[in-house]
Amino acid sequence: MATPQRSPGLIQRYREELQARHYARRTVATYEQWLRRFLRFHQRRHPREMGSAEVNAFLTHLAVEGQVSASTQNQALSALLFLYRELLERDLDLEGVIRARRRPRLPVVMSVAEVRAVLERLDGVEALVAGVLYGGGLRLMEALRLRVHDLDLQRLQITVRDGKGGKDRRTMLPSRLAEGLKAHLEAVRRLHRQDLAEGYGKVQLPHALDRKYPHAPVEWGWQWVFPQQHRWRNSETGEQGRHHLDPTVIQKAVRRAVLASGIITPATCHTFRHSFATHLLETGQDIRTIQELLGHQDIKTTMIYTHVLNRGPLGVRSPADAL
């Protein structure tokens, strides 16, 4: 007699529902973490037994006891709304659910001199990644997920694939990085050839492309631009490969460089992206072009950088400057 298979649990079904809708891997992990916290908060009661009152109690606990930011609280709400609407097929009574209001914040921006001071204190792969963040306005994970075929060293272009919101875009590749990236890619290619010679060299592909193109995982164009130093290993199959650099490697290196430079600006990896947009505006570049380079869906998101310049949306000059 065959043993009946157990149906997947709530968390597994929740994860699979997110993946079926092509949510980003990090979003899936974050939403799953919020579901687990919600269940623990209510002594692991099944969500079908709960509703708006329990969701509201959890969100209030996050705000009052956890003192989380508005964006964090709204992220938790989004995870729970997905649970009820998409998995349990049930609408919450949102009239009683607290939605935190995000207060507008100006982005942290470094001056050109501060960017130079930080970049000068980075070397090797960390310097190349930081150069791409500032030179092309990329987010950290967009830079780390670059494949070899996403770099065009002839046309000095970077193609960002599956960025925020699942969108592709093109941005600029600074000419000052071209030689360094070329030398870096030569070293990465030697490493890839060594992996192939040892029977490895496969890279993970998105959206099950490895089934559609069986040879693609070993092809040079699909390899990471910034691979990890050590191979990962699947304990069940014994398969090995290389993933891209862990973001904490770059975050820690930038943090050390900021402290060593002595600048007061609380800069992070994302500050390079803010600085990229602001410095383009300072040189008179068109804001619509900057919107495309950054991949913003709404021009209002890009307009925040005009406030960093202490100028209105039309670049109005202060009358005090005429005195």
Structure overview:
The structure is a single chain. The protein is globular, with a radius of gyration of 23 Å. The chain is mainly α and 323 residues long. 26% of the residues are buried. The protein folds into two domains: 10-96, Orthogonal Bundle (DNA polymerase, domain 1), CATH 1.10.150; 112-308, Intergrase catalytic core (hpI Integrase, Chain A). It has helices at residues 10-20, 25-41, 52-64, 70-87, 112-119, 124-136, 140-144, 175-197, 209-212, 247-261, 269-282, 287-294, 299-308; strands at residues 151-152, 157-160, 169-172, 232-233, 240-241.
Measured between the Cα atoms of the first and last residue, the distance is 93 Å
Question: Could you say how many structural domains there are in total?
Answer: 2
What number is the mean pLDDT?
86
At the fourth level of CATH, the homologous superfamily of the largest domain is Intergrase catalytic core
Secondary-structure element pattern, one letter each: HHHHHHHEEEHHEEHHHH
Which strand order does the major sheet show?
1-2-3
Largest sheet: 3 strands, antiparallel
Radius of gyration from CA coordinates:
23 Å
Shape: globular
Q: Structural class from helices and strands?
A: mainly alpha
Number of helices: 13
Q: How much of the polypeptide forms β-strand, as a percent range?
A: under 5%
CATH topology of the largest domain: hpI Integrase, Chain A
What's the multimeric state?
A: single chain
Unreliable segments of 5+ consecutive residues: 1-6
